[in-house]
Automatic annotation (TrEMBL):
Residue span(s) of domain Amidase: 26-449
Similarity field: Belongs to the amidase family.
GO MF terms held by the record: catalytic activity
Entry protein name: Amidase
Any Pfam family the entry gives: Amidase
Gene3D superfamilies: Amidase signature (AS) domain
Length: 468
């Protein structure tokens, strides 16, 4: 029974908890047992809060018994990426330098989740400082993909992706600067949403690139993501980039109806040099939406030719500013890959940064024009499949190509412009899941989620789960 419970989604568990058919304590114990059982294989958790989680689950059970049910996530066990601040809790940032760091306050999203009755089960592993995309951490060990333990789960939110996929966390939160929610979502066969920039506060989340950082849900289903977004969205005076918006009910926008939805497809960039099996899965999925009444329009995005360069310029410049003192005083305490990345941040000049801003402006303009004629843009999430842990090259239709620039090639441009972007599973490539990426205009998060739900209803993974 316990193993069956941890495979359920929040949308399945919530009514059972509300109606007292499942106890939050029973659920918490099952998830914690699953986390401890699988962590030897996936290394998804850095720390597990067993005693505290059980205590809070008992509190949630009592609240619900007394008629004080707080909503969909009340009593739901959840691990959180370890670059999110917890007051008086060790928050390592996946690093050596901050291995003993204990924040004096909670991140805004932690406050919101706690108020919603979430049961925190621990902190999840990640790429050091969230600064790359494999979750191969030199200090806390590599996170392993639950579908194939020799392969990367993607990153930097690799612990979140792996934990949700195996039921070691019912849902989770990731951070995304160049694809760090969507990449592990695609690699691990789950749902990952990068919301519109400014919709979710980043206060209390250790920064990587303040112009590109996002925080969002990583879940088993699209409705789980919508419900989680309703909790964490909202204006935050402590976050300068937070936008004032009327609160939305994202769940109400999920109908699965895509009749007359206009899908934009950019062949020049988003379907160029794609693994042939990934491309087939994505194109076949688009056709299923057409079969449901959607339409496809080919679009062109001229500024995409400079998007990779601009995204790299923002990331290395801003990350190097964040870590400026540490890279000067303690360079040996960074992992080799991160040390090289941060040192390279000294290279972009002020003119190059200004040129990147111009690219961002042109890219924003191009997307605004596109979204006058199409409702969503659809592409693969990843152009290549996950590589073996430790490999810096990856196969692309028989050719060995560098992993890093290819893993972020289809995700990073959408961080530059801050649009809502969702990855959902859309099929298989051998024994590994494939993700499809759906992007909409700013604050059309509900539309993006609904499109993802129409795909999810097709059950393209066939109900398969990792066999750990």
């Amino acid at each position: 029974m316990a193993n069956e419970i941890v495979t359920k989604s929040v949308e399945e568990l919530a009514p059972l908890i509300k109606n007292k058919e499942i106890s939050p304590v029973e659920l918490a114990e099952a998830v914690l047992n699953r986390a401890e059982e699988t962590n030897e294989k996936t290394n998804a958790y850095i720390s597990i809060y067993r005693d505290e989680a059980i205590e809070n689950a008992k509190k949630a059970e009592e609240e619900i018994r007394n008629g004080n049910y707080l909503g969909m996530y009340h009593g739901i066990p959840m691990g959180i990426k370890d670059n999110v601040f917890f007051k008086d809790k060790l928050t390592t940032l996946g690093s050596k330098i901050h291995k003993d760091y204990v924040p004096s306050y909670d991140a805004t999203i932690v406050e919101k989740l706690r108020d919603a009755g979430v049961i925190f089960t621990g902190k999840l592993n990640l790429h050091e400082y969230a600064l790359s995309i494999t979750s191969d951490n030199p200090y806390y060990g590599a996170v392993r993909n639950p579908w194939d333990l020799e392969k990367t789960p993607g990153g930097s939110s690799g612990g979140s992706g792996a934990a949700v996929a195996v039921g070691a966390s019912i849902a989770s939160i990731g951070t995304d600067t160049a694809g760090s929610i969507r990449i592990p979502a695609a690699a691990c066969g789950i749902v990952g949403l990068k919301p519109t920039r400014g919709l979710v506060s980043t206060h209390g989340v250790f920064p990587l690139s303040w112009t590109q950082d996002h925080v969002g849900p990583m879940t088993k289903t699209v409705k789980d993501a919508a419900g989680l977004l309703e909790i964490i969205a909202g204006h935050d005076q402590k976050n300068a980039g937070s936008m004032e918006r009327t609160p939305e009910n994202f769940l109400d926008q999920i109908t699965g109806d895509v009749k007359d939805l206009v899908i934009g497809v950019d062949e020049e960039y988003f379907f160029n040099n794609i693994d042939s099996n990934i491309e087939k899965s994505v194109r076949d999925t688009i056709q299923t939406l057409v079969d449901q009444g959607a339409k496809v329009e080919t679009v062109e995005i001229p500024a995409m030719k400079d998007a990779d360069w601009a995204g790299f310029t923002f990331s290395v410049s801003e990350a190097s500013a964040v870590h400026y003192r540490s890279i000067i005083e303690r360079p040996e305490d960074f992992g080799e890959d991160i040390r090289g990345f941060l040192v390279s941040g000294a290279f972009p000049s002020s003119k190059q940064y200004a040129d990147a801003v111009k690219v961002k402006e042109q890219l924003t303009q191009d997307f605004n024009e596109i979204f006058k004629n199409v409702d969503v843009l659809i592409s693969p999430t990843l152009p290549v499949m996950p590589n073996k842990i430790g490999d810096e090259m990856v196969d692309l239709n028989g050719e060995q190509v560098p992993l890093l620039p290819n893993f972020i090639r289809l995700t990073n441009p959408l961080n530059i412009i801050g649009t809502p972007t969702l990855s959902v599973p859309c099929g298989w490539n051998g024994n590994m899941p494939v993700g499809i990426q759906i992007t909409g205009p700013a604050f059309a998060d509900g539309r993006v989620l609904n499109t993802g739900y129409a795909i999810e209803k097709l059950n393209l993974l066939g109900g398969k789960r990792p066999s750990l």
